[in-house]
Design a protein that fits this description.
The complex is a heterodimer of chains A (111) and B (116).
Chain A: E1 5-7, E2 10-13, E3 19-24, E4 31-38, E5 42-50, E6 53-57, E7 64-68, E8 74-78, E9 87-94, E10 101-102, E11 106-110
Parallel strand pairs in A: 2-11
Antiparallel strand pairs in A: 1-3, 3-8, 4-5, 4-9, 5-6, 7-8, 9-10, 9-11
Chain B: E1 4-5, E2 10-14, E3 19-21, E4 24-25, E5 32-39, E6 46-52, E7 60-61, E8 64-69, E9 74-79, E10 88-96, E11 105-106, E12 110-115
Parallel strand pairs in B: 2-12
Antiparallel strand pairs in B: 1-4, 3-9, 5-6, 5-10, 7-8, 8-9, 10-11, 10-12
Classes of the chains: A mainly beta (111), B mainly beta (116).
Chain lengths: 111, 116
């Protein structure tokens, strides 16, 4: 089975721009979660989707949003980028509530 | 208060030795799950092992075992016969409460370096 894939792997944006990251879960997995990892804050939960519905949301501003499609693929959008949004964004998929399997991440740099 | 505490920011271990990575957690829930992940320098988070709060036996996956001491709220990862490829960041994570909670709470991680 193919693992979780994330595109793009690397992104460079400037302040004020917006960005969309994509995540394709393991085949058959319907839950997709997103995490932000920074040296200062560590790993923080952004949100989780199941069957196109957001079930949980972390403590991030409204500039961070996401969605899930009927094929379970998920996208995450960050609008009005700030320097502090530079991070590794990790996507994870799971069957339901069990172990989360992660993709390789998207490394976002905001200049 | 920190929900997940990993007290060892970094560790050096000789190849082939066993290593224990510490993790303590804080929760008032009766039902929770504890996870260990490995993150090599490439960035991908690799699942290693899982322990449920109601599991009576310590989890084991190949060279990895979890030393679960519920009363002490401790879930240490033990790697037997360490290898050079074990050099990476290791994260302990917890999922609290009911199955409706899908959020993982993470520790700060331990950087493990295996010396040849």
């Amino acid at each position: 089975k193919a693992g979780v894939t994330q595109t793009p792997r690397y992104l460079i944006k400037t302040r004020g721009q917006q960005v969309t990251l994509s995540c394709s879960p393991i085949s058959g997995h319907r839950s997709v979660s997103w995490y932000q990892q920074t040296p200062g804050q560590g790993l923080q939960f952004l949100f989780e989707y199941f069957s196109e519905t957001q079930r949980n949301k972390g403590n991030f501003p409204g500039r961070f949003s996401g969605r899930q499609f009927s094929n379970s693929r998920s996208e995450m959008n960050v609008s009005t980028l700030e320097l502090g949004d530079s991070a590794l964004y990790l996507c994870a998929s799971s069957l339901y509530t069990d172990t989360q399997y992660f993709g390789p991440g998207t490394r976002l740099t905001v200049l | 208060a920190q929900k997940i505490t990993q007290t060892q920011p970094g560790m050096f271990v000789q190849e082939k030795e066993a290593v224990t990575l510490d993790c303590t957690y804080d929760t008032s829930d009766q039902s929770y799950g504890l996870f260990w992940y490995k993150q090599p320098s490439s960035g991908e988070m690799i699942f290693l092992i899982y322990q449920g709060s109601y599991d009576e036996q310590n989890a084991t996956e190949g060279r990895y075992s979890l030393n679960f001491q519920k009363a002490r709220k401790s879930a240490n990862l033990v790697i037997s016969a360490s290898q050079l490829g074990d050099s990476a960041m290791y994260f302990c994570a917890m999922r609290e409460g009911a199955d409706s909670n899908y959020q993982l709470i993470w520790g700060a991680g331990t950087k493990l370096i295996i010396k040849p």
